[in-house]
Design a protein that fits this description.
Helix content: 40-55%
Strand content: 5-15%
Structural class: alpha/beta
Largest sheet: 6 strands, parallel
Mean pLDDT: 95
Radius of gyration: 21 Å
Distance between the termini: 28 Å
Strand order of the largest sheet: 7-6-11-10-9-8
Number of strands: 13
Order of helices and strands: HHEHHEEHEEHHHEHEHHHEHEHEHEHEEH
Number of helices: 17
Length: 430
């Protein structure tokens, strides 16, 4: 087992790349990338870094030279032979050759495009611009670099024994959570913690802890590199990025209203079974389900990523029943801001009524809350999102107005088109 404290100590003395592999990425990004190359290869996009915790002045914490060094390193990476073999020959969700030869040949040649970085008002403005299939693969790498550089900045002044104690306490925290979860053997949990992790080594340790502690209750990880190295299932389907960009490409209100369902049509051409998971909240879950075509009710399940999770799950159950589907055969994946108390409560409420699964993210791989003075290692909410496509701004409404994105006039237009009324605000923590 890697001595994490020693590795952190060594960061003080030599360069240690944060991202060492292009598949140190979430599985859904690769699935979406293949779909985008087939359906929207010529879309020209801009992705931007957004720090939702504006009081955390990242440009005053993270050294610009170090950030550029890490970003530049990612642009030198390419797939190794072993990584390519794993993607080409492995079985994902019961399907061999999930990734086509054409996609793999493109991915093997890929080097990530240039970035633009500048400081403004104590924050970093970090943007990526170019063809959608290439630019989209910057998202997770940029997030993990920012998150880990912040961690390193905080840890830089700590001594070796202090680091040992810090990680011992953090490990104890994770293991106490595992012990609570293992009391419910029916629970099903996957690691979704890549994007806001404390570090790669810490995420890898947390995954190993879940493997040992939860056994069959642990279903896999979204991180492709860890899945490969630990012989685990790679977990993931798609994200808000697809409907956001499809919608921005629409030329009329009618095309805008149809865009989220065009995403689903393109997706089902490529995928069957457990990959057919609806993510309905990009422009409001209630309106999405109300206007959804009948065939969408036959899909495997739904992922709930904003709003009141119990309320949205009840809405999904009613929707399936109204369309003649048996909710007991459907999967609901909860993935928004989860920790042990919430997972146990949701499992208790819905187990036996639907199939329940959890994508456990930041509070698995970055719960250092209360472990250093001033809580300087507490997780914070940061995203890299599509900001525009072909010169048009993108919009995300979500089921939580705290997660809304886009110009104010476009947000109002989208609310009108998708019939979004008054929404309840939820604090965005992670």
């Amino acid at each position: 087992m890697v001595d994490i404290a020693t590795r952190v100590w060594n960061h003080k003395w030599r360069i240690d790349p944060i991202v060492r592999s292009l598949i140190d990425d979430d599985f859904y990004k690769l699935l979406m990338c293949q779909s985008v190359r087939r359906n929207r290869p010529d879309a020209h996009v801009t992705f931007s870094l957004i720090n939702r915790n504006t009081s955390l002045r990242l440009a005053e914490i993270i050294d610009e030279g170090e950030l550029r060094e890490q970003l530049d390193n990612v642009r030198t990476l390419s797939l190794s032979r072993g990584e390519s073999t794993w993607l080409r020959g492995n079985t994902f969700y019961g399907k061999r050759q999930m990734f086509s030869p054409d996609f793999m040949e493109w991915f093997e040649r890929l080097r990530l495009p240039a970035y633009h970085l500048e400081k403004r008002d104590g924050q970093y403005e970090l943007t990526f611009e170019g063809s959608w299939p290439e630019v989209m693969l910057w998202e997770i790498h940029a997030l993990t670099i920012i998150m880990e550089l912040r961690s390193r900045a905080v840890l830089r002044d700590m001594g070796r024994f202090e680091l040992q104690v810090l990680y011992a306490r953090a490990m104890t925290k994770v293991w106490e959570k595992v012990n609570r979860l293992r009391e419910v053997p029916e629970i099903r949990i996957a690691d979704f913690g890549t994007r806001r992790r404390h570090s790669f080594l810490w995420q890898d340790w947390c995954v190993q802890a879940l493997q040992e502690g939860l056994g069959d209750s642990f279903t896999g990880t979204s991180n492709c590199l860890i899945a490969k190295n630990r012989d685990l299932e790679a977990i993931g389907t798609n994200a808000h990025e697809l409907p956001m960009i499809y919608a921005a490409l629409a030329d009329s209100d009618a095309e805008l209203a149809a865009a989220p369902y065009q995403v689903q049509e393109d997706w089902q051409v490529e995928h069957e079974g457990n990959l057919r998971i609806i993510l309905p909240d990009t422009f409001g879950t209630e309106g999405f389900l109300k206007n959804a075509p009948a065939w969408l009710a036959s899909w495997t399940g739904i992922r709930i990523d904003s709003g009141d999770p119990a309320e949205k799950a009840e809405l999904a159950i009613r929707w399936w029943r109204d369309r003649g589907e048996d909710p007991m055969t459907k999967l609901v994946i909860f993935s928004d801001g989860l920790d042990v108390d919430k997972m146990l409560a949701l499992h208790k409420q819905f187990y036996g009524r639907i199939k329940v699964s959890f994508g456990w993210g930041t509070m698995l791989t970055n719960d250092f809350i209360g472990l250093v003075p001033g809580d300087r290692l507490a997780p914070f909410s940061i995203v890299v999102k599509a900001a525009s496509v072909n010169g048009r701004p993108t919009v995300k409404l979500s089921d939580n107005p705290g997660k809304a994105m886009g110009p104010a006039d476009q947000i109002e237009r989208y609310k009108r088109v998708f019939g979004v009324g008054q929404q309840q605000y939820f604090e965005v923590k992670v």
